[in-house]
């Protein structure tokens, strides 16, 4: 989508600290990290949010979820990690392109 920041990062029209990329997703550092490790796992397909998924997105979602643990290892979170997906205005989603926050590297409070 032409006015989407994350699509622009995916298309290399905007810079980002990309730490992993494959056919399905891009992983880059969050510009305002909330922890020593804070990366965003972003599908290359412009999916707006979890609330807007359709059946054609199943493979993309599965591939992202199946890869999270390997990505966490790659960024040094072999001991465990937190994942957050904000959805919609009420969920605090600021960028309307689905993304998983992968966070760790400090003690994280209980939720
Ligand atoms: P949300 O609130 O939508 O779940 O999270 C959006 C995240 O994207 C925020 O943590 C914010 O810091 C991050 N972000 C917003 N714009 C950019 C950007 O241009 N580059 C990077 N790397 N992260 C961004
Ligand atoms: Zn997008």
TrEMBL record:
PROSITE patterns: HIT_1 (PS00892), HIT_2 (PS51084). Pfam families: DcpS_C. A motif (Histidine triad motif) lies at residues 97-101. InterPro entries: Histidine_triad_CS, Histidine_triad_HIT, HIT-like, HIT-like_sf. Transmembrane segments: none annotated. Residues 5-111 form the HIT domain. The lineage of its organism: Bacteria, Pseudomonadati, Pseudomonadota, Gammaproteobacteria, Thiotrichales. CDD domains: PKCI_related. It comes from the Bacteria. This is Histidine triad nucleotide-binding protein.
């Amino acid at each position: 989508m032409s006015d989407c920041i994350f699509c622009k990062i995916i298309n290399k029209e905007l810079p980002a600290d990309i730490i992993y990329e494959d056919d399905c997703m891009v992983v880059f550092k969050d510009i305002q990290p909330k922890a020593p490790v804070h990366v965003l796992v972003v599908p290359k397909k412009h999916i707006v949010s979890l609330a807007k998924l359709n059946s054609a997105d199943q493979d993309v979602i599965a591939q992202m979820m199946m890869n999270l643990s390997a990505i966490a290892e790659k960024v040094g979170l072999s001991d465990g990690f937190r994942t957050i997906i904000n959805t919609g205005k009420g969920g605090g989603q600021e960028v309307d392109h689905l993304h998983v926050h992968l966070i760790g590297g400090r003690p994280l409070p209980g939720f």
